[in-house]
Amino acid sequence: MSVSLLASLTASDALSIINNFLLLLGGVAALMIGINMMGNNIEKAAGRHMRRLMAKATKNRFLGVATGAAVTTLVTSSGATTVMIVGFVNVGLMTLAQAVSVIMGANIGTTVTAFITAVSTTGGGIKTAAVFAFFAFVGVLMNMFGKKDLIKQIGLILAGLGLIFVGMNTMSGSMSSLLDESKNGNIARAVKDMFASIGGGGGNLTWQIPVLFILGALLTGLVQSSAAVTAIVMSLAAANAVDMQFAIFVILGTNLGTCAVALLSSLGTSVNARRAAFVHFSFNLIGGIIFIIPLSFPAVSGALVRFLQSLIPNIAIQVAVFHMFFNIVTTLLLLPFQKYLVKLAEFIVRDKKAGGVAQGEEDETLDMRLLKTPAIAIGQARKQISKMGQLAFANYKLSLDMLLSGDLSQMNVFNEREQHINKFNHYINSYLVKLSLEPLSETDEKKLSSFYHVTSDIERIGDYAENIVEYAESAVKEKVTFTEHALDEIREMDLHLTELYKNVEMTFENITLGYMEKIDEEEQATDDMCTQMQQSHLRRLNENRCTPEAGAIFLQLAIGMERIGDHMKNISNSVKDYAPHSK
């Protein structure tokens, strides 16, 4: 901006700049609120389906790209999808190799938002933005007066979509008003002069290209939304403040800027999660370089601009088309080199721990980033609760082995596992509390509520295992032995508990009622065995075939094992509130 033009601005011009700049910021705010509102509520309404999509993404690279594009289209943010993927890799739901293709697809999916914002600049008599503003009004009414959660969510989706168009229209209007030479001649010339000085004047952009690329990356990193920066560029282009060549290099920069969110989200995660974030960064950086090199030649960039202008008269849609073209071509070029991107990430992001993650450490991984996708966070919590249950049952088996064999050499293993169970219980419940603060569907609320009870039941199983270890210590100290008949009864009770656990585990992990009949049978068998063990004990005591010390341990053991069965049954019953009622 030249000094002479700056000096020519009046007080009225200054007020006009302030007013239009405030409107621009308001438009950006409405746009970002709309994007978040639409994405969050689509995710709430279709969270379970998105989870299934992610599970299918592991089958092949092309399906991975399609899945990444589909999920990002739904949540309207490649950054959100990539953060989700980093979370999946961190907790082991997805391998690094599987994550690469999904990340590539996410970059394609984010271009849909650019098309939505571009369309808002079109329209004849009744503008597109006006139609979608009406949709926002309808959506608000649906949310206010709708009785079902799904209706309310659809209402918020419509309201979010409408806000995107309102925001874009406000941004475009503020720029058009500011740069209208018939109204603000001095301002229009000053602003256009400023952008021309950094590459917006249609001349030779060779030296300005890095500036524009970095500008796009920095702005996107700051506002954490490539869609918002793209919308600003579209508004400037629609107001003739910048040309298409200027827009191209800023857009290339926005793709790199989206990596900031994923890179920040990977801090403090597993080495593979950090590698996934680096893959996202390297993919966008390599793609940007591939395009920048040829487009640095004015003849090439000029030919591209003329080609787009010959196909599409609206410059905002030209920007959206280029944005999609860049991401599709980059994906096609780099998809065959997927394994090399993984190797590059492994080379750059080294695993500093010899031997990898410490045993048990990976079990306590509940990624806080997944809280923003409650349906997936619920599934991950279930997985970790199941692992906690496996540890508790393993400790029960170990405690019984020590009692029956009289060998206490595995006591340290038992104690370490018990500490791990207690940590699990605290960690999972803390995660569930945080998850309860997120917007949940009715079904997810039922699942979350049941999880508190399940972790409590699992902890109690671990406590009973501790009691059995105490019996083992007493038996060794007092040199207690059981009769062969007593040992047979203990082993039979253990067989019923083992079978019961297998069916309960399948019921909880697979959310099915198909094993309930078998669970009822085995749980009843443990009750019957407890009664039988008590009666047998009295008979042996009367026949002087049992010592008081052995009898006391045997009775306490019978009751403890029966109560372990009760807690297992409670875990299976927890599924009844939300499982499909079919075998």
Layout of secondary structure:
Blueprint: H1 3-7, H2 11-56, H3 61-75, H4 78-91, H5 96-109, H6 111-119, H7 128-145, H8 149-178, H9 185-200, H10 209-223, H11 226-238, H12 244-257, H13 259-265, H14 271-295, H15 298-311, H16 315-334, H17 338-348, H18 374-405, H19 411-436, H20 442-477, H21 484-510, H22 516-542, H23 548-573
Helix pairs in contact: 2-3, 2-8, 2-11, 3-5, 4-5, 4-13, 4-14, 5-14, 5-16, 5-17, 6-11, 6-16, 7-8, 8-11, 10-11, 10-12, 11-12, 11-16, 12-14, 12-16, 13-14, 14-16, 14-17, 18-19, 18-20, 18-21, 19-20, 20-23, 21-22, 21-23, 22-23
Kindly summarize this structure in a few lines.
The chain is mainly α and 583 residues long. 79% of the residues lie in helices and 0% in strands.
Order of helices and strands: HHHHHHHHHHHHHHHHHHHHHHH
Question: Care to count the β-strands?
Answer: 0
Class per helix and strand makeup: mainly alpha
Rg from alpha-carbon coordinates: 32 Å
Q: How many domains, in number, for the residues?
A: 2
Assembly state here? Answer: single chain
Taking pLDDT < 50 over at least 5 consecutive residues as the criterion, the unreliable ranges are 354-364
Please tell me about this protein's structure.
The chain has helices at residues 3-7, 11-56, 61-75, 78-91, 96-109, 111-119, 128-145, 149-178, 185-200, 209-223, 226-238, 244-257, 259-265, 271-295, 298-311, 315-334, 338-348, 374-405, 411-436, 442-477, 484-510, 516-542, 548-573. By secondary structure, the chain is mainly α.
